[in-house]
What does this fold into?
Amino acid sequence: MILVLLVSTFLFSQPYKGSTIKVLVWDDALTVAVESMIKQFENETGIKVVFERIPSGSILEKLALSVSGSKADYDLVSVDEPFVPQVGNLFMPYSAWPEGKIYSKIDLERDLIPGVAEGSFWNGEYRGLPINGNVYVWLTRKDIVNNEQYKKEFMQKYGYELDIPQTFDQLLDISEYLSTKGIYGFAPFTKNAEGATCEAIFMFESYGTNVLVQVGEHDFEVVLDKEKAVEALKMYKELCKFAPPGWEDMGHSERIAAFNQGKVFSMFQWPAIVPDHENKDQSVVAGKIYYGAPPAGPAKRAAIRGTWMLGIPNASKNKEAAAEFAYWWSSYEAGKELVKVGMTPARTDLLLDPKYVEQKPYFVGIFNSMRYSVSRPRIEKYAEVSDVIKVNWLAGVTGRVTPEVAIDNIIKGVNEVLEKYGY
Amino acid sequence: MVTKKEKRIGEKSPVLYFILPAIILVAVILIFPLLFALGISFFNWDLIDESARGFIGFSNFVNIFKDKSFWNALFLQLGFIFIAIPIETVIGFFVAMLLNREFKGVKVIRSLLLLPVFVLPVLSGLTWRLMLQPEYGAISFLLTKIGVSQTTWLAKPTTAYAAVIIQDIWRMWPFMFMFLYSGLINIPPSLIEAADLDGAGFWDKVFKIILPLLKPTFTTAILLRLIDALRIFSEVFVMTEGGPGNATTLLSLYIYKQAFRYFNIGYASAMGIILTIISLTIAIFLVRKNMMMESA
It folds into this structure.
């Protein structure tokens, strides 16, 4: 009798018993951790989860081939923020997501870090549930700014205290000073990849300009202020003078290596990579890093945001189960475990929980950075716009063309993309 | 008694049955995708936005001919082919000549030389990227030892393009060696011995005996390399991602970008058709030449 009661309790507590959902996500430590906890979710809900992890750069291709307006091979798909405009219409608006039967529906405004939800906003709707607090966080070496000898010398030369740089001008001064100590002030991102576009937008925004603005419902206009953009590019070039050898072609792996070897004073990083810097087996600067918002330009501080959202395709046949899985992933309960294995939560209560902040000092930095978060151009044809920005920005930064020509080419190139697609 | 007609059927049918699976396979994995690509090359075919799809006739082809990036990519691709393949062929030929003799350890050497061909292209690209890294890359280290200043090879258009070609030569010359060596060992030794008796020098033997006899082998090897080189992608992608600027955006990378980054499948298909036509033209030329040589 007791056994029957136990079995029936177990069965009735699984409101989705028999459902199977297919989930497509990017592949990193976080999603590996999520996968390791899926059994628990399956036992609670009765939903069988087919969890597919693929390299983040291939998600969009896979999505394009497997989800359309009329068919969906997946019930839940992760989408990187800049591509939300391109694919957003394939997904059910978050406002239409069903309530969870076990886990509560996430309130985007109340539960998540301010700013994070904007990453999933397109065409008047949130197109999914943001799942991580992904934003530029600025890394600065505490041990360097606290070095008494350096402080004294710096004060004598520059007339102000050596500290965490609050502006690009300060970062430039510190970089110049540290070059006499064999330390590189700054590690740029100059590989021919999306990161270069991020750097361009980060600098443009800090100098008070941006590339595109939406005009009306379906039109866009190039609004890049040449003077400000040239100044931004020139400052970046100046900072690169104090970058490690090979700075003209630095991607994530080169930057991580240089910083972890203790050669670099300051640079941005995406939260998912930060744990590598704090891993004592991989980094000689573990425990010596201050995490904060990026230095300010003449206009403001700006931190590039790149949150991933979970979207339910309109054509999915398992919307309720898919939503339940997304709520579970975003819940405080699951988050507690996921944080331990490297998740950067999008939830405020997790990010600012004192016990996690103590273990993961960069959480506060992420929270602070998110206050200054900016997005990359929001347009359906983002990939082409991004390529134009990236190619010309890098040409300007590495000196293949003058900053003026580089900015002119960005303006011309983006206008050509708009014209080509009839904007 | 079997009539002539029945005999003909009886003779032909088994052959047809044997080759039918191969025909079906080729039709499914080659002919159909090719025809499909040809079909959608006449459409505006956005991979995501189904509502934007529609027949546009030859517009994709017209736009391609007006697209400067296409011409740049085609120029880079052809440059890559016409620089890399001849160098690989020359190296492969002379190493094959060198190792076409018996001495202790030659079999091991021959086998070891083939190793680069078996390295995954993506791994080769990554390794070369690391080796060219100016601060801790092995090649950069060696170059600085002989007085070459520290340079970010992959950040400059010319050196990045050269690096992509050198990487390909390193990986693929053993392929040419393998082919040409197999051709060399089939040359009757009596011909070489006769030339020796006639007092022919090394270069006489190379130009008057070996090269003419190896022509069909050269043609086949070059044809196979050409097909491979026209679809080079992953090693370039991981080395440079087509940069700096578009300096190493070969046509194969440009087609990929149009198809899977911009989702302009119709446009990418049209470029793919053009690339196929170029490949076929060169292949037909080489095959016909080979056949003419054989018949002569």
